[in-house]
Amino acid sequence: MSAYRIRRLAFVAIVLIGASCATDLDSVNPSEPEPGPAYLYAVDAKTGTEAWRRLVPHPGTPWLQLVGDQLVYSGSASVEPAAFDLDGRELWRAAESSWRHGPFLLAGAALVGVASRPDHERAEMESVVTAISRTDGSVTWSHRLEFYPEPGKGGGVTGGSGRVFAAGGEIGTIIAFDHATGEPAWERRFDGSVHGVAHHHDGTVYIGTSNGLVALDAVHGAELWTAEPGRTVGGPEGISNGNALSWLGSDATGRSDVAAVDAVSGERRWSQTSFRQFHVGGDVIVGFAPGTSGSSDEAVLVWDGATGELVADVEVGGIDPRSVGIADSRVYVGTQVSGQETEPGRLVAIDLATGTVSWTAALRGSLGVPTVADGVVYVSAAARWTDQSGALHAVDAETGAVLWSFDTPAEIRTKPIVVDGRVFVVAADTVWADL
């Protein structure tokens, strides 16, 4: 007998998009969302009041991006990517409704991303790098790939120096395309698989492989250097103080070395050990480690990006390693809750100057990725396991005072986007089955 679990509908809480849409917004009852779709919410950043909401197709895993002056909405499910202006008017909707889209990047006058769909004749997924016009959503160029550059699974798409770079995981390949025409510019195959999304910085493309971190000339594809040969390198996650920050292997406990490699020469500058993942933000790197003996807490570790010197070591219980924000000389870390409806989550602010906790705010729910804007921390939450409702919280970045909370009937699934006095988010229920 099949046991079905329903989380409830897809919601998009955009704390900002405008007004008119094809769906009658007044007819949508937020307490009884229809199965399947998602909602875009526009919320006033100062007051936390709803500006408007828009019913959109359920995205699977949703992507909400601010690209130039457009809000671009897409998802891992078969929905048409669409763009909205900051008043909420739909600007265009792409035609390929059968494709599953990842996040886009801005390349000249186009949005470029990877789309995929089942190829039934070949019994595999077909993937295509696609450029979509920011004017009308039409496809300006596309190129079929022999691999699927899926973010988080050993590949992805990035851009820079007039190029778009698509990297594949197990096949160990990176291809560069002219961002205007889609013509292939160069291709490199590695002795091993690709681990992570390529990173472009100052005319160089960096990519982690199972045989080291490789730096390539972005325009011509010539290899500049290989660092840490013979080791599995993930990332890099970013550039800080002239260093490329990458993973070096991992063991069964999830421990990995965080290595800082000189972005010009490839020489290792420093390394530290982090448990699970790490984040690069400006001049600092945030990682995690088990707490002291006998403690169930984890330690939040903050290192100076230039020297690797430990800036902060703070134990926090229930850390979600994805819920990290870095801004204005502070690190903000959110926690998960175990599911009890009355149990609060916590947003913890760590002062980088002192290495101590500045404040802790109790918030309802397991927290998402924080966004800091205009002295306010905006963070989403999955409020209750029983019905998977959600919430968007606004917290004073200086004092930790909770300014307002905005409830949604479904879990918010995207990082808040703050622009022109409003916050944008996507909230969506999930339906799954245990067969």
Can you say what the CATH homologous superfamily is? YVTN repeat-like/Quinoprotein amine dehydrogenase
Beta strand % = over 45%
- Please tally the helical runs, counting DSSP H or I stretches of 4 or more residues: 0
Class from secondary-structure proportions = mainly beta
What would you say this structure looks like, in words?
The chain has 435 residues and is mostly beta strands. It has a single domain (3-434), classed as Methylamine Dehydrogenase, Chain H, CATH 2.130.10. The chain has no helices and 41 strands.
Write the layout of secondary structure elements.
Blueprint: E1 3-6, E2 10-11, E3 38-44, E4 50-56, E5 62-67, E6 70-75, E7 82-84, E8 90-93, E9 100-101, E10 105-107, E11 110-119, E12 124-133, E13 139-145, E14 156-160, E15 163-168, E16 173-178, E17 184-189, E18 199-201, E19 204-209, E20 212-217, E21 223-227, E22 233-240, E23 243-248, E24 255-262, E25 268-275, E26 279-281, E27 284-290, E28 298-304, E29 310-316, E30 319-327, E31 330-335, E32 344-351, E33 356-364, E34 366-367, E35 371-373, E36 376-382, E37 390-396, E38 402-408, E39 417-419, E40 422-428, E41 431-434
Antiparallel strand pairs: 1-41, 2-40, 3-4, 3-40, 5-6, 6-7, 7-8, 9-11, 10-11, 11-12, 12-13, 14-15, 15-16, 16-17, 18-19, 19-20, 20-21, 22-23, 23-24, 24-25, 26-27, 27-28, 28-29, 30-31, 31-32, 32-33, 34-36, 35-36, 36-37, 37-38, 39-40
